[in-house]
């Protein structure tokens, strides 16, 4: 198996490996899952399931773009809930409501008049990523204003924020341009998605790190 | 340029930007943590200085009390003993017997007073009886002397308290009791202790003449001493009094596990 093909399936391998490490750690008693960890676990499980479906559909040469729309939607819901709940700043909650409303309104418009359900909905997935990055930056801004004295590398929130920023922040342009590239340079789109997979693998690693940390910010 | 290359480069630039942002954020956060820790340390030092100064005040006050007691009471009686010894006429056996009998009585009183003073200062006795037990004994003896009536009430279960906290609480209450006997002209005293899950609340109230708190607040050593002792154990002390309407002392402090 070449590096190129490993990178191709990294969006399935990385979350699967991450899930495996979590399951082993939980069953060996090395880690006890907190509520924030369960949210990360849901994200990772969804990534495993939906990327497996997408890979299977690609194998049988069936359109799998709807799966990515589903990944975008579930990611937004999961991290929207996370930033709503942890550490629960009022201003961030307002942003989550506005973000989700925008997402659903734009989702309906793009489904009805722009892409339909069988095309890669670049704008919607990019909007979802953008919203999650905004929630994350706003959360960082507000928890920076708290008088915290714990070392930053011991904070669950730091590792989660790092994962979110690395994945959703770095992949934003890839999501935004993916439809355009798939139409205009369809033969070479693979390399772009492989880079996305690398970002996802980094995020999974950082989320695993977060799960192993015990301290989190309480407002 | 190939749009695919542009996107790849842009994504990598975004990635590096996120990395840079996180690195900068970590540095800022660490600087902030360092500043907060320094501020915390300064606060702790200032509190410690204040605590030591209060402790010194309290020690000086205790020594002054012992010195006063020795001078006013024991010293006076020893002078009296000396006087009696000097005037004994050993040629008159009856008179000498009478004076020796008086001397015996004086020496017994001196021994009793020194014993009382020692008992008051003995931390083992406080640990054995608890501050409320000793206050009850003192109230009882004052009641027996016919000086005043008292109501004694304890609510809740007493948790284990730090012995040094018990000593300070007792000293505050003894000072209050001393003030009641000396100045208040009260006929009744209420002593109430409420133990809750993590707090002790004490009420000490008399129906005496009261006083103008603003006039005494600066000058009285006793009140200053009570406040200093309260500060030592992180207790809140509240004194309410007005001429003609008695005095109420409330002392409240958290119990640390």
Descriptive labels:
heterodimer, A: mainly alpha, globular, B: alpha+beta, five-stranded mixed sheet, 5 strands
What does this structure look like?
The complex is a heterodimer of chains A (219) and B (257). Chain A is mostly helical and 219 residues long. Helices cover 78% and strands 0% of the residues of chain A. In chain A, helix 4 packs parallel to helix 6, helix 5 (90-114) packs antiparallel against helix 6 (122-144) and helix 6 (122-144) runs antiparallel to helix 7. The longest helix of chain A is centred in the last third of the chain and has 29 residues, at 156-184. Chain A is globular and about 50 Å long. The mean pLDDT of chain A is 88. The model of chain B has no long low-confidence stretch (mean pLDDT 85). Chain B has a 5-stranded mixed sheet, covered by helices on one side. In chain B, strand 1, helix 4 and strand 2 form a beta-alpha-beta unit. Chain B is α+β, with helices and mostly antiparallel strands. Chain B starts with a helix and ends with a strand. In chain B, helix 1 (3-87) packs antiparallel against helix 2. Chain B is elongated. Chain B is built from 6 helices and 5 strands. Chain B has helices spanning 3-87, 93-121, 123-144, 163-184, 213-216, 221-232, and strands at 149-155, 188-195, 199-206, 236-241, 247-254. At the A-B interface, helix 7 and helix 8 of A face helix 1 of B.
Largest interface: A-B, 30 and 25 residues
Strand proportion of chain B, as a percent range, falls in: 5-15%
- The poorly predicted ranges of chain A are none
**Unreliable stretches of chain B:** none
Helix-strand topology string of chain B = HHHEHEEHHEE
Tertiary shape of chain B: elongated
Averaged pLDDT of chain B:
85
Helix-strand makeup class of chain B: alpha+beta
What is the share of helical residues of chain A? over 70%
Rounded radius of gyration of chain B (Å): 31 Å
Rg of chain A, nearest Å: 18 Å
How much helical structure, as a percent, in the residues of chain B?
Answer: 55-70%
Strand content of chain A: under 5%
The span between the termini of chain A is 48 Å
| DSSP summary: helix tally of chain A | 8
């Amino acid at each position: 198996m070449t590096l190129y093909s490993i990178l191709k399936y990294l969006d399935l391998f990385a979350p699967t490996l991450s899930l495996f490490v979590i399951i082993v750690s939980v069953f060996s008693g090395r880690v006890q899952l907190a509520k924030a960890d369960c949210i990360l676990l849901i994200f990772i499980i969804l990534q495993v399931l939906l990327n497996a479906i997408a890979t299977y559909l690609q194998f049988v040469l069936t359109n799998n773009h709807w799966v990515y729309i589903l990944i975008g939607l579930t990611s937004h819901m999961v991290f929207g809930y996370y930033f709503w709940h942890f550490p629960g700043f009022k201003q961030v909650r307002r942003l989550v409501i506005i973000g989700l409303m925008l997402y659903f309104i734009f989702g309906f418009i793009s489904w009805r008049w722009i892409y339909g359900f069988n095309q890669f909905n670049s704008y919607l997935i990019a909007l979802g990523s953008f919203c999650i990055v905004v929630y994350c930056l706003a959360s960082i801004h507000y928890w920076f204003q708290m008088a915290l004295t714990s070392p930053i590398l011991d904070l669950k929130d730091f590792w989660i924020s790092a994962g979110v920023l690395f994945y959703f922040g770095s992949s934003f342009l890839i999501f935004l341009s993916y439809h355009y590239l798939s139409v205009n340079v369809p033969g070479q789109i693979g390399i772009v998605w492989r880079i996305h997979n690398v970002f996802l693998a980094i995020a999974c690693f950082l989320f695993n790190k977060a799960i192993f940390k015990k301290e989190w910010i309480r407002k | 340029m190939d749009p695919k290359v542009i996107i790849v480069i842009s994504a990598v630039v975004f990635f590096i930007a996120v990395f840079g942002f996180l690195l900068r954020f970590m540095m800022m956060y660490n600087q902030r943590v360092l500043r907060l820790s320094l501020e915390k340390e300064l606060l702790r030092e200032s509190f410690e200085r204040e605590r030591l100064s209060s402790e010194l005040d309290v020690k000086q006050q205790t020594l002054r009390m012992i010195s006063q007691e020795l001078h006013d009471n024991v010293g006076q009686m020893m002078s009296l003993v000396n006087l009696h010894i000097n005037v004994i006429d050993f040629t008159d056996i009856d008179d000498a017997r009478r004076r020796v009998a008086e001397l015996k009585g004086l020496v017994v009183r001196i021994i009793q007073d020194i014993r009382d003073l020692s008992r008051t200062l003995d931390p083992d006795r406080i640990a054995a009886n608890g501050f409320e037990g000793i206050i009850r004994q003192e109230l009882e003896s004052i009641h027996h002397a016919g000086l005043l009536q008292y109501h004694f009430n304890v609510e809740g279960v007493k948790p284990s308290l730090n012995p040094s906290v018990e000593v300070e609480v007792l000293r505050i209450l003894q000072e209050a009791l001393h003030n009641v006997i000396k100045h208040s002209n009260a006929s009744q005293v209420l002593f109430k202790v409420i133990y809750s899950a993590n707090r002790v609340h004490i009420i000490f109230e008399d129906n005496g003449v009261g006083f103008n708190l603003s006039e005494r607040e600066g000058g009285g050593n006793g009140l200053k001493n009570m406040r200093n002792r309260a500060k030592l154990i992180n207790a809140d002390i509240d004194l309410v009094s007005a001429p003609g309407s008695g005095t109420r002392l409330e002392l409240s402090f958290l119990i640390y596990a």
